[in-house]
Amino acid sequence: MSKNTELELVALTKQYGETIAVDNIALKIPQASYTCLLGPSGCGKSSTLRMIAGHEIATKGDIILGGKNITTLAPSDRGTAMMFQNYALFPHLSVLDNVAFSMKIKKIDKVERHKKAKDMLALVDMAQYSERYPEQLSGGQQQRVALARALITRPSILLLDEPLSALDPFLRLKMRVELKRLQRKLGISFVHVTHSQDEAMALADNIVVMHDGKIEQAGSPIDVFNKPATEFIARFMGGHNVISSDGILQAIRADKISITKKEKTAQDGLFSFKSQIEEIEYLGTNVQVSAKHDEFGDVAVNLSDQAFFKNPFEIGDSVFLSWKAEDAQMLPS
Amino acid sequence: MFRFFAQRSNLSGWALASPLSLVLVFFLICPIIMIVIVSFWGATEFSIYPAFQWDNYEFLFSSSVTYTVFLKTFMYAFITWAITLILGFTVAYYLAFHIKSLTWQIALFLLCTIPFWTSNIIRMISWIPFLGRNGIANETLIQLGLISEPVEWLLFSDFAVILAFVHLYTLFMVVPIFNTMMRIDHSLLEAARDAGANGFQTLVNVIIPLCKPGIMIGSIFVVTLVMGDFITVRFMSGSQSANVGRLISNDVGLLQYPSASATAVVLLLTVLITIGIMLRFVNIRKEL
Fold this sequence. Notes:
The structure holds two protein chains of two kinds.
Chain A: E1 7-16, E2 19-29, E3 34-38, H1 45-53, E4 60-65, E5 68-69, E6 80-83, H2 95-105, H3 110-123, H4 139-151, E7 157-161, H5 169-186, E8 189-194, H6 197-203, E9 206-211, E10 214-219, H7 221-226, H8 231-237, E11 240-245, E12 248-253, E13 258-260, E14 270-282, E15 286-293, E16 297-304, H9 305-310, E17 318-324, E18 328-331
Parallel strand pairs in A: 3-8, 3-9, 6-7, 7-8
Antiparallel strand pairs in A: 1-2, 1-4, 4-5, 9-10, 11-12, 12-18, 13-17, 14-15, 14-17, 15-16
Helix pairs in contact in A: 2-3, 2-4, 3-4
Chain B: H1 2-38, E1 42-43, E2 48-49, H2 55-62, H3 64-98, H4 102-113, H5 120-125, H6 127-131, H7 136-143, H8 158-182, H9 186-194, H10 199-228, H11 231-236, H12 244-253, H13 257-281
Antiparallel strand pairs in B: 1-2
Helix pairs in contact in B: 1-13, 3-8, 3-10, 8-10, 9-10, 10-13, 12-13
């Protein structure tokens, strides 16, 4: 299976009446990669996914999959498959028939389609539940069935719309690992829409952060987290302080800031600012400290518990915050 | 302590259920028992007398009229059911899937109920000037040159009876089907499309199976209403056709209560068996 399955979005736009949901975006998704479309609700990530899936037709622009323009093709002719947010399993069909549904539509003989569906269910560890109905399954099991149903069409890209949001936190972590494992095993691309930074960071080879219908930044999780391109990204990804001074915007990771009682001398490109401790939260492995600076406002500092308890301080203490120049990421203002 | 509360809540449960139970017992169960009892009574031309004899049933089952009339009743019920099902499903489908805004859905749904603002009988009678020998339908057809002389079968015929039934009862089909359709998650339709299903395949493989409970509830409404009706048949057939309801009403008119009761009991059992058979096909309990 060395066929080209690269996905490319070219000047893709979606308009609903006057509102522009997706605004002229361009994106390349390499084959056999895990991509997360990340952004707050209403940023256009779901519309983008639905356009790739063919459940919405682009207002302008093109979608190219494996060198073929699929912009206006029917969903089933594109080589994509979609896994829906609430799984959208057919309640009147057994697990086996749900998975075999697309083959029933293609009028494949019952024995053969049931055999193939069973194989697919085995892949997601659901073979023993094939006679059950969706309502008799837990959320995690329903999700596996939905995965099997999407994968049985042998898509070159699997599209997942907020696949983990309906699960409880424990199961979410478990399924997250399984999704990634499955993607590696199958060697196809997964495009996963989510509003959770943790999820995107943990899963993705590529994170595409969207905001107001535009792509703010696309890159590896490390790039996106360490080198936020815009103020929005720095704030949205979390773990950063956005500090404005003299008209210059900078992002500094909360764990790159140190707190001392004495002022550090400005050597080795170290910056130091007098602040007051406002809030201390103990989080187990680390301690979240909130300090107030006259010019920058609130600054969040993330210390390891060791560092904190070696040099503890209290709310109201006057301290100095300092960081290295190289840890401050310039942002376009 | 717990036992006390358990008993108390038991008691209040009974108390809450009792008004409806009493109404049903007095106005449904008691009359039916009464009818069953009277169906075994005897009658002469001028009197009825309490007895326990099978004469009424014997007469009923030995008369060929009974069979013709029951057959006719089934025919009316079946044809009306088929037409109202097709119409009702189409209307409900249009309302549920083609009208996107809730406001319009409600508005059009209310439009469907407008005929119900007048009584059954008025709605029925209003067909007469339309379908009559010199009615609007015939006049129009003659003016259009489609026919040279008035069509006779428009009014006072089986056609008129079924037309009136369909007019009266389609809404009973629309409402439950619309109700089940509105509960269908639209992502299921997208999932079907994703799997390559076209509109018709989605209809057959997803929508119709999921609407089965609504279809069944609507069917029960229509079948029981048509099988129990007598006034529509009388008016629209111009007293030329008879169904079981008319048989009973004629007996009542002649004060032959025992015979009327026996027919009523047989009709009741027939309807119950019909519904029983229908329920074998669909589990509507999930819906209720």
